[in-house]
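Reminder to self: tokens first, then the designed residues, so the page reads top to bottom the way the pipeline ran.
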């Protein structure tokens, strides 16, 4: 069995609410092991706590209860071993070129010029943006901006890549292109990836395993599905369609359970 890169045990996350001091229970009893080098997708409807879980792994917030570990060490803050790709391209610096955006992290870490230039060149070639390195973000398409984000994160050499619905705002064609692109990048680097999505087909296309999250409040990981399909994956194959249907049934069952709970409260 592959060792765990990420481990969560009995994780709970509360957010303070309104002026009355009430709190919202976002996550409760989360148990998760993400294997070293795997592509793991978190799947569930909007508002089910996927981003909250990702923020805990990133170290942006700390759990109210429970433990989050990276390779056996407790997560207490953001660190260079984790890189985050956000949904919005606003994370880019509009006034910097593609090359300057990607080199920002290595330069801030104090790498010598010859060293960071080599890293940046490698990352730009990896994401297919070498010929666009002198352009500003406003001159790029949505898909290209997301590739800049990925290159900028990878330039910091993280062991773990956390991706929060990075293709949600893209059109269907560009989204498909980026799905292929990110699997190519993952295959070349074999970093551990945790990818948040609400798109079932996207999760099947990308993941080694898929975790289904329950609806909130008190969300947790309900079930984990192995994606035992060869790469590259074809959406119209029997195996793909069968897994799509099983995931849909699991999500529908969870939705029905949540509605029943609401009706009986």
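Designed residues (265 positions):
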């Amino acid at each position: 069995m592959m060792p765990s890169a990420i481990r969560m045990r009995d994780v709970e996350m509360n957010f303070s609410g309104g002026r009355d001091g009430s709190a919202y229970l976002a996550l409760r009893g989360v148990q998760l092991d993400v294997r070293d080098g795997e592509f793991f997708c978190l799947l569930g409807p909007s508002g089910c706590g996927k981003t909250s879980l990702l923020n805990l792994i990133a170290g942006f917030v700390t759990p109210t209860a429970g433990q989050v570990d990276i390779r056996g060490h407790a997560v207490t803050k953001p660190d260079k071993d984790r890189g985050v790709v956000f949904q919005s391209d606003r994370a880019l610096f509009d006034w910097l070129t593609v090359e300057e955006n990607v080199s920002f992290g290595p330069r801030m870490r104090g790498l010598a010029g010859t060293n960071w230039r080599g890293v940046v060149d490698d990352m730009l070639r990896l994401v297919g943006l070498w010929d666009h390195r002198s352009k500003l973000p406003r001159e790029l398409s949505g898909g290209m901006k997301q590739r800049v984000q990925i290159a900028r994160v990878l330039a910091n050499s993280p062991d773990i890549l956390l991706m929060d619905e990075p293709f949600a705002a893209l059109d269907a064609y560009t989204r498909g292109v980026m799905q292929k692109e990110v699997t190519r990048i993952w295959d070349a680097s074999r970093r551990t990836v945790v990818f948040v999505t609400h798109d079932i087909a996207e999760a099947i296309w990308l993941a080694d395993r898929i975790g289904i999250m329950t609806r909130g409040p008190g969300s947790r990981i309900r079930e984990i599905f192995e994606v035992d399909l060869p790469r590259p994956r074809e959406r119209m194959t029997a195996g793909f369609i069968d897994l799509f249907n099983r995931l849909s049934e699991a999500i529908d069952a969870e939705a029905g359970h949540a509605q029943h709970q609401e009706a009986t409260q």
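The CA atoms of residues 85 and 150 lie 6 Å apart.
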